[in-house]
Amino acid sequence: MSNNDSSTAKRIPPYVSEILKLIESSGHKAYVAGGAVRDIVLGKTPHDYDVATSAKPDETISVFGKAGINYYDNAAKHGTVTAVTSGGDVEVTTFREDGSYSDMRRPDEVVFKTSIEEDVRRRDFTINAMYMDSEGKIYDPEGGQEDCKKHLIRAVGNPDERFREDALRILRAIRFSSRLGFEIEPETLRAMETHADELEKISGERIATELIGIVCGKYAPQAIRTGCNVLSVIVPEIGECKGFEQHSKYHDRDVLEHTLDVLGHIPYVEGEGRDSELAMAALFHDLGKPACFRFDENGVGHMKGHPRVSEEIALRVLNELKCPKQFITNVSLLVRLHDTYIYPDRIQVHKFMSMYHEEILNKLKVLQRADILAHSPLGQNRIRRLEELNVISEELKASGAVFSLKDLAIDGRDIISLGVKEGPVIGEILEEIFNRYIEGKCVNTKDSLTTEAKKLLLERPI
Ligand code: ATP
Ligand code: MG
Fold it and tell me: Which residue has the higher pLDDT, 199 or 77?
């Protein structure tokens, strides 16, 4: 079950191996466990290191105390003691077996154990159930290294039991598949689908974290395709899009395949992933299509109004999952605007740039580009229009144009000095002057805007 590879030992940084050796020297076993070993086996650099040990929390505390190592004692709440070192924090957890899971999420009781063979049973997948000692020797009782080679996500032991104990593991499997590009082993996938309904017992926040991880992964399209039945428990519309043909010359795929193609075209940056708002907007952007679908008299499919319906779906789901307010606002706005045609002329672009925050517009361009690339070749000339939009918006910015009435060279006091009484009407006048400025009827100088304001007051005396 073990395999000594001294080259991997180098991959455990000194601050972590020191902790391992310290606990070992007190007569206990200690290993780096879980995700860090998986990452090392896959040739990646772990972002953190968790230690599993036969030492009970009070024994770990006593070892740290004697060695003068600072620590947080989270033993009562989380069963962990976290060593605080100059290299980073190291979470140390006693080998354990989690008791029954009556709420499908948290073990009712934790029983401390003394060996890896017992600790491994509480872990989710074989690739996450490997251990490495301070010498770099790997302990792999479930065949995690083999599954890393085969690019497989496989539940530890009986998959039905694993998912019954903790339904969140169902989404973790899809997230790891999205991150690593691994297939899910058929029996594990079958059990995930069998137990998918139990996801209803998991808190919205936890589901949201996993869903964001899923859409942001490098291999998100294939992971979502595989996990479609499971994800449909959270977002039923995903399942409705599978096999839903669009009957349009602009689309050569069903709605789900088009959606996954759009998601695949949202830029992925190595080490950073995808922008989570864009990735989530890509997932939701067309989910309203099946509900809006109509044939016209020529047998051509139309899905008029689908951005609004997709937006409602995004709002419903993301609120249910208790996502942060700003995230929900931005994702739903991107979904609503994804199909908006911005006419490539200066006034239209200026208006649009004044209506929405620059960050949203930049994201919208990325989403629209991804959407066009995921259409049949017939729609590709729309890319040119997006490029024209870019040129115009750059020209506008370079020309010193302003995009908010707060940046006009006049303000409310100037309007009052023209004899207008204070009140909401001041804002309305400024709004109208701002529109006229965008339309090129005046320029953004105090003189020009004041002249325009006087004209406006003559046309519409207050
Ligand atoms: P990441 O790189 O995303 O942190 P990770 O594998 O380290 O991946 P964590 O959530 O940090 O994942 O958990 C650390 C380890 O704890 C896992 O590798 C796994 O062995 C175990 N683990 C975490 N959550 C669960 C769970 N819900 N069920 C079973 N084992 C789990
Ligand atoms: Mg981790």
Answer: 199
